[in-house]
Every structure is written in C-alpha cells, then in structure tokens.
Amino acid sequence: MIEPIAATLPTPSTPSTLNTLKRRLGLTTATAVVVAEMIGVGVFLTTAGMAKSVGSPFWLSVVWATMGAAAIGGAFCFGALAARRPEAGGSYIYLKDAYGPRVGFLYGWLSMLVTDPGITAAVAVGLAEYVGYLAPIGPWGRKFVAMAAIGVLAGVNIRGVALGASLLRVLAALKLGLLGFLVFWGFASGKGDWSNLLPIVAQRPGSQPLVPALIGGFIAAFFSMGGWWDLSKLSGEVRDPARNVPRALVLGVSIVTLVYVLITVVFLYLVPLERIDDKQAFAALAGEVLFGRLGGAVFSWIVIITVAGSLSALLMAAPRVYFAMACDGLFFPRFAALHPKYGTPARATLIQAVLACVLVAAGTFDQILAYFIVPTVVFLVLTVFALFVGERGRSARTPGLIAAALLFLAPTTALLALFFMDSPLRAGIGLGVVLLGVPFSYLVAPAGTTANRTEITDQDPPGEVGRKFDL
Predict the structure, then answer these.
(1) Looking at the domain assignment, is residue 324 inside a domain?
(2) What are the distances in angstroms from CA 123 to CA 116, 126, 270, 313, 357?
(3) Contact between residue 93 and residue 107 where contact means Cβ atoms under 8 Å apart
(4) How many folded domains does the chain comprise?
(5) Which of 140, 160, 310, 466 is 20 to 30 A from 411 (CA-CA)?
(6) Mind telling me which residue stretches traverse the membrane in this protein (predicted)?
(7) In angstroms, rounded to a whole number, what is the distance separating the alpha carbons of residues 29 and 221?
C-alpha cells in the first residue's frame, strides 16, 4: 500500500533526511529540463502577434535568432556559475556568494511568493484553456483542470527525482517529436505557398513601424524563450555538473532557438501574414490548412503536451531554491528536510503547488506577475554580473565569458530600460515589494547565517540505499 505523501513528510529533527540530494540527472535529462521549460504555449501565441506587427519573415527570424543568441550567451554564463558552485538553488546561490545572503534571500523571497507560483499558475491555466477547447468544461472546470495538473505533477516530482525525470524526458521527447512532425509535414504536405514568404525583407502593409515592431518583438521573444536558467537550480542533482550543466544549457537553448525559427517559417508558409487577425487564429489557421476540420483539436493536443512538459519542469526545479535557502538558515528549517522515502524537497514543492493553486482559484496571477517583470530581469542581470564579482570572479574574466556576458546583457539591459520607461510606477511597486523582504529576512534569520549548509553528496538518500539510477 502506498502511504499518503503528507503522512510521511520528515520532521526537521530527523538529521539523516537533511541535505542529501543525489546526483542522478545526466546530460539527457538536464537538456530535457531546458527544452521543457523554454517551449511552452508562447511558440504558438507569441509568434502571431510578432508576425502581425513586424510584418516581415526576415525580421521575424532576426528577432528569434537575436534573442536565441542572447539566451546562448546567458547559458554560457549560468553554466560557468553552475560549474563553480554545483549546488541546488541556482541564482540564489550565485547572488548570495557575490552580494551577500540578504540579496540571495530577496531573490528567493520573490521566487517563492510571486514568480514561481505565478508562472506555474499561468502555465497550468494555459494548459486548461486548451483542454477546454476539446471539452466544454466552463470557467470553473478550467480552474479545476489547472489545479489538478499542478497537483498531479507536484506529486510526481515529490515521489522521486527518478520518476519526475522520466516523465520529463518523455514529455520533452513528445514535445520535440510533435513539433518536428509539424515542421516536416507542414513543408512536405505542399499545402502552403512559398509566395507567402515574399517579399522576405520588406514589411507588409498594415505592419507597425520597423523599430517599435522590433522592440515589441524582442520583448515578446525574451519571455517566450525564458526559463532555461532554471536548470541551474538542479545543479546539485546533475552528475558531473561542471561538464553537463553548461552543455545542457547551450544544447537546450540552441535546440529551442532552431525550433522557434522553423515553426515560425512553417506557419508563414501555411498562412499568409495578411490572414493573421489575432494570436489564436494563427495556430488555428495553420492547423486547418494541414489537418482540415480536425486542425483545432490536433493543435490543442500538441499544446497540452507541450505545456505539461513546461509545468513539470517548473515543479521540479523551482522548489530547490527554497530548499537551498533553508539549508543555509535563511528560511524555515522545516523546508531543509528531504522526504524520508523519496529523497525530494517535498515541503518546498508543496508550498509552490499550493500557492500556485491559490492564484489559479483567484484568477489574479497575470496582474500580479506584471508588477514583477522588472525585479525578475534585474535579478537575471545581477546573476550574470555575479560571475565576475570578487576573488572567484577573477578566473571568469576571460575573453570568451566576457563576450558571452555581453551577448546576454546588451539586449537584456536594453529591455530593462524599456520596461522602466513604459511603466515606472509598476516597476517601482514591484521593486518595493521585493525590498519588503529585507525586514522579513531578519525575522527568519536574524544573523543572516549560511552556516547550516551541509555539502551535497553522492550518498543514496534515506529509503533508497543501494538503488542506482543513471538518467
């Protein structure tokens, strides 16, 4: 009989359950995390708005390629940081090392209370919307589906990193396979028209002026291609992290960039820009051209599988931040305990899932997330700068890493400035809420200690002694 998860949660007084994450994730799973996190519903929705405003296949491809290159530059930097500090926590660890524990805490505060549950809720609702296309379930039915998806995938990731990794690899493979088939059949079917891509460079009538259109496209592409950095949160569970984390980051980002460009081209081949009216019609029209009346259902299943992979990756990676904070004495110690049987940060995963479900039920996650775009990007920029800070940063000041950092920081800081100029009040409120975490950090950890951390080892976690996994 399988006992309920809640009944077997560890107590903080069980020392053997603390800080013993197992390095079980290989290059394949690490790459799957990157691919699953990055490819969500955005590839279907964002492309339409970008295509309509930019109005040029060439410039649309330039937008994807540019932001893909920026992401690859960031991936090199995060890979170097992960090689330096191969522990659970990602940006939290790097910010704490470079700027002190309070800054690391503020990143974790933002992640736990806003961005992680907010993004989790948004992704789950996106999945439910497409389930609603297949069955008339109504608004509350969609909320139930979204919360059920969060609960099921959180449970899978609590039950063990082996199970979560296996599911993630399957979903990532299905995602790439379906998108690959979509690209192949889109061209091979002959149902499109190459003249839709002409003129390649010139903008179509009705497009926005080029510069504002490109700026809007870069912003949309930045968020559509986000999430790759979450692999660094799992560095404590990746085998040979100094080698595999950087490789997985660069490989995953490169794969996704190629997929986004190919999907964009095949959509334009199937549907002329002049027929694009809104973001949902683009995918629906392409589906109708390829599959007739079944096009909407086919695309819905593709999106559901795609989004399920993103949701699973989020619920696997994000809780490692709160776990790492608790291990360092910067969060409640109960969250430093791993599940005694499954060896996973169960409490950290549960808090993310519960907060996400609350936001789904309230239906306010999109408004909340809008206030925290600027703080999120600020922490990304600070994380990349952290690579070069202090004594440890001296070894990173090589031409290659400096070039990679500039490749990421140039467009990212430009977008950050645009966000500030577009809505300074919203940006200020978001940053103000983040700073409210400072007094709370003194309540949780008055001394700002990081002395409680135990080195992550390759020992088998409790309840799994002798079991060997090579993922």
Answers:
(1) yes
(2) 11, 5, 27, 11, 12
(3) no
(4) 1
(5) 310
(6) 25-46, 58-83, 104-128, 140-158, 170-190, 210-229, 249-271, 298-323, 344-362, 368-389, 401-421, 427-445
(7) 25
Higher pLDDT, 445 or 259: 259
12 occurs within a structural domain: no
Q: Return the ∠ at Cα 335 (arms to 333 and 338), rounded to 5°.
A: 115
- Alpha-carbon distance of 88 to 70, in angstroms, equals 24
What proportion of the chain, given as a percentage, has pLDDT over 70? 87
List C-alpha distances in Å: 324 to 10, 201, 237, 248: 16, 49, 12, 22
- Locus of tokens 């990349």: 384
Query: What CATH number has the domain bearing residue 243?
Result: 1.20.1740.10
Structural domain of residue 48, as residue ranges? 25-444
| Tokens 């696997």 belong to residue | 316
**Any domain includes 9:** no
Rounded distance, CA 26 to CA 32, Å? 10
Whole-angstrom distance, CA of residue 368 vs CA of residue 115? 9
pLDDT tens sequence across 305-329: 989 999 999 999 999 999 999 998 8
User: CB of 283 within 8 A of CB of 51?
Assistant: no
pLDDT tens digits along 138-153 = 889 999 999 999 999 9
